Amino acid sequence: MRSKGLGVVAFVVAAAVSVIAAFDPGLAQTIKVGAPLPLTGPLSPEGTKLRQGYELWLEELNKAGGIQTAGSRANVELVFYDYQSNTPRAVQLAEKLIVDDKVDFLFSPFGSGAAKAASVVAEKYGVPMLASTASSAEVFDQGYKNLFGLYTDNSTLSEPIADLVTKKSPDIRRVAILARNDLYPMSLANEFEKSAKARGLQVVFFEKYAIGTMDHSAALTQIQGGRPDWIVVTGYINDLILARKQMGDLRLTAPVVTMINGPAYNEWIEATGALSENITTASWFHPVLNYQSKDLFGSTQNFVRLFKDKYGSEPDFTQASGAAVGVILQQAIERAGSTDRDAVRAELGKGNFETFFGLISFGPTGMANSYVPPVYQIQDRQVKVIYPEAVKTGEFRLGVR
Amino acid sequence: MLAQIFVNGLLLGALYSAIALGFSLVWGVLNIINILHGSLIVLGAYLAFFLNAWFGISPFAAAPVAAMVLFIPAFLLQLGVINRVLAKPVLITLTLTFGLNLMLNNAMLTVFRADYRKVVLDPPLGVLDIAGLAVPVDRLAAGAGAICLVALVWLLTRTTQIGRAIVAVRMDRDAAALMGIPVATVYALTFALAAAVAGAAGALLSAIFPISPVASAGYLGKAFVICVLGGLGSIPGVVAGGFGLGIIESYGALWLGPEHAGTVAFVLLLLLLLFRPNGLFGRKGFE
Hints:
In chain A, 54% of the residues are buried. In chain A, helix 3 (87-99) packs parallel to helix 4 (111-125). Chain A has helices at residues 2-23, 44-63, 87-99, 111-125, 155-168, 183-198, 217-225, 237-249, 266-272, 300-311, 317-336, 341-350; strands at residues 29-37, 67-69, 72-82, 105-107, 129-131, 147-149, 174-180, 202-209, 230-234, 256-260, 280-282, 353-355, 358-360, 375-379, 382-387. By secondary structure, chain A is an alpha/beta fold. In chain A, strands 2-3-1-4-5-6 form a 6-stranded mixed β-sheet, sandwiched between helices. In chain A, strands 8-7-9-10 form a 4-stranded parallel β-sheet, sandwiched between helices. The longest helix of chain A is centred in the first third of the chain and has 22 residues, at 2-23. Chain A is built from 12 helices and 15 strands. By secondary structure, chain B is mostly helical. Chain B is globular, with a radius of gyration of 19 Å. In chain B, helix 5 runs antiparallel to helix 10. Chain B has one domain (2-275): ABC transporter involved in vitamin B12 uptake, BtuC. The longest helix of chain B has 29 residues, at 2-30. Chain B has a two-stranded antiparallel sheet. The chains are: A alpha/beta, B mainly alpha. The interface between A and B is large, with 39 and 46 residues.
């Protein structure tokens, strides 16, 4: 009898606490966001960078008192696991995050391939997933309702550069493309091929290299034989450091050399030294940009300052992408006034998020379509914006030696 | 173009020899598949990178320093840790070096971060033009350094008492012990020598390849293929395997496309395993 009485008292106390919590805006609820990250394995540099972006956003969010929802504020907990750069593992962990950890929303794994694979799980459970680093249209062609990508389509990288090249020099006729055999770099290479052909340029070389390649000399020797005017190499930073070094070793020169994604990183410029001169690239974000925003950071430059204070270096686009998906999710939840997935999904669909990364809206497939990634060129070991006109800091130069 | 591809293959092959030398030594003498090997190369590359960044020391001059720095910790590691499991099945030693590799790799990720770096030679060493063929001097120097390294280890095993002891232990551990050779110490010396060679190789490669802890798996994979190709524990086999792989990959990339360069090498490796399982220079017993 005594224990039954205690049980009733405990129930009443618990109920009272719940009621108070529901009506007291001072007591915070917790929103859980899941993130499979490649913290070990070949993609660990990128995974570490994404995590830095997420953590800066979380730190600033906590300082600001959390996410404002109707009548209360909510803390955010980031639940992440290392998928060891192994895509099937990323998919398993995305499911674990939803089923076991009961996360409210997801940030995607790194890159296009893993994001596409994990989006199947997000769709199955109806969990909105923000893809921080997926730029291949193939990721978004599945008709899913829960996938939202921060990056614009790869063609938005190739088209402006192709325009610049053909306008600058009508003598540029022959193009060579060397691509890492991976979803994103291949998709990018295909876009460059389309952009070149659409302008009447002749693609004299188009080859893929395997992931983990330690030598590009044979491919570059073949490229040399094709006497291209414009060389495009796609891949990740290690591939592009090696490829640029070996171009120098073989004295392979051309009026234009485009490499994506490499020169947007400071570490790429440091690792290639004088060989970085006049390399063109494009990227969705760079610390030289300066957008004013209505997010937690207020502007690109404030984001850059906070990042430098925390990590001691300038953010690159991967780090910025991690923070950007955070502020987008935050704005969507605040607009929805709740963590209800349907309401947040609807707000994400409406877009128009003014962020430090740029104005973000999503197209019908869920891919961002609201901004044009700038084109950059390394000049005197500095990154200059050469397109678009509005944010230009330098003129496009020909000649890569 | 064919001649240039051949030169490219030769230069690459010399670097591959350096990558595989220490791995072959440990596998041949200790019968350990040393998963730690790739990370030791990366550690050597980092040492060269920082010596260059802080004191302006050339990575080629840093190679002996990297070798010395890695020698003593490796000696102690073998003596205190790995020797304890040497008599166990190969899976145990494999698991141990796998675990040690995880520890070293993660330590490097924490200390050096995952960012890619590279030694940039200032001024650059340039490119030689030999009969119209481009020969990058830094690759040539690194390749020459690699061959010197192989020659040094070969001379050591042939002409010194320690070297003969290593060969004797490799031939027959029990007989060597009966002859009064301190087998445990010889194992430790062999592992330390292999680590020193890996460190020196890393320093030589630091101006050629991007440096990051995540690069270690690539080095380990190449070392494995070269050892099987050249013959387990054979020092001349390392040179043959390195050059063989370099040239095969280069022509494979030319004829079948860059993405299939590795495939060609692995198909040849499988054929070799079928028809000459001891590799090109490998022999059962000793060299």
